[in-house]
Design brief:
The chain contains eight helices and 15 strands. It is of the alpha/beta class. The strands form two sheets. Strands 1-8-2-3-7-4-6-5-9-10-11 form an eleven-stranded mixed β-sheet, with helices on both faces. Helix 1 crosses helix 4. Bound molecules: threonylcarbamoyladenylate and magnesium ion.
Length: 314
């Protein structure tokens, strides 16, 4: 579907689509985002499916206001110092997830942290205020292609895979936001962007830059593995052995949990991390057996993550 000019009417329509679990591309000051309701696992799964990413990387969650963050994450004093000056703007902050965080676990790709930013673009802000839900939004381009700074780029890359493209003109910054990890004692820049290390250091003191030191944490997309259950995981199983939990897929009996009884890969992706966590309980099981998952569409990313979960622990 062709881009539509962003105005009160199209933003209201975009908000309806998002609340119903659909996908909307919207402009931010950095690049166009491919947005979905971060509280709905299947909406988040649709983002991965539309981008055709072969793996699950955690996504940035966009908020309308600093006050939204308290319900999602555990901000500290550095959050206040940074956001007072640099929000709204191209700075993403990674913080610990609240235990009762209402967002889908897929948004964090199973991690205990969450990346949040408040975009400085009137269309993005108006959309967030209208939806009244945090939006997960990676850049609105197919995996492996450059990030879109015009609505026409989104249309070329993802035209058929998104329910609505809001056209808000060219993006001012044209480069993705800086990602800053605040889960460490000393903050770490995981992804350089428009906000510089100097600007950050002026507000909260010394910061480290991940790319400059191999010992520092990396952006999860660059890591070989992140979330993995502590129990051993056995793939392509057709039933559980004694003591094992069985994570099924499709019309099966004898499952401990089922990723999708109707064999829907979007539903399976939405359930993946929460169900692995649910079964990762050494007081009940000695391992997790997982049914075969078709390696098509988003099934490729599901299999990628399962393979990492099953890799020998060290
Ligand atoms: O400028 C931007 O940030 C754009 C616009 C649309 O806002 N969005 C964007 O989103 O680039 P995305 O989802 O493509 O970027 C995700 C980046 C990745 O580098 C990812 O590894 C990092 O943020 N990230 C997300 N969640 C994280 C987490 N829990 N811990 C560490 N890094 C995280
Ligand atoms: Mg991107």
């Amino acid at each position: 579907m062709s881009p539509r000019p962003a105005n009160a009417e199209t933003i209201a329509e975009a908000a309806r689509i998002l609340r119903a679990g659909g996908l909307v591309s919207f402009p931010t000051e950095t690049v166009y985002g491919l947005g979905g309701d971060a509280t709905q696992g299947e909406a988040v799964a649709r983002i991965f499916a539309a981008k055709g990413r072969p793996s699950f990387n955690p996504l940035i969650v966009h908020v309308a206001d600093r006050t939204w963050v308290a319900g999602l994450a555990e901000p500290d004093g550095r959050f206040d110092k940074l956001t007072r000056t640099l929000w709204p703007g191209p700075l993403t902050l990674v913080m610990r997830r609240r235990r009762d965080c209402p967002l889908s676990e897929l948004v964090s790709a199973g991690l205990d942290s969450i990346a949040v930013r408040m975009p400085d673009h009137p269309v993005a802000q108006e959309l967030l205020r209208t939806v009244k839900r945090p939006l997960a939004a990676p850049s609105a381009n197919a995996s492996g292609t450059v990030s879109p700074t015009l609505a026409a780029h989104v249309h070329e890359s993802l035209g058929t895979k998104v329910d609505l493209i809001l056209d808000g003109g060219a993006c001012r910054v044209g480069l993705e936001s800086t990602v800053l990890d605040l889960t460490q004692h000393t903050a770490v820049i995981l992804r350089p962007g428009a906000v510089t290390a100097e600007e950050i250091a002026a507000l909260i003191g010394p910061v480290k830059v991940s790319a400059e030191d191999p010992a520092l944490p990396k952006s999860p997309g660059q890591l070989a593995s992140h979330y993995a259950p502590s129990l051993p995981v056995r793939l392509n199983a057709t039933s559980a052995q004694p003591g094992e939990a069985y994570l099924g897929f499709g019309d099966e009996t004898g499952v401990s949990l089922n990723l999708s009884a109707k064999a829907d890969l979007i539903e399976a992706a939405a359930n993946l991390f929460a169900m692995l966590r649910g079964l990762d309980d050494a007081t009940r099981f000695k391992g997790i057996a997982v049914a075969p998952i078709p390696a098509t569409g988003i099934g490729i990313a599901i299999n990628d993550r399962l393979k990492r979960a099953a890799a020998p622990k060290h």
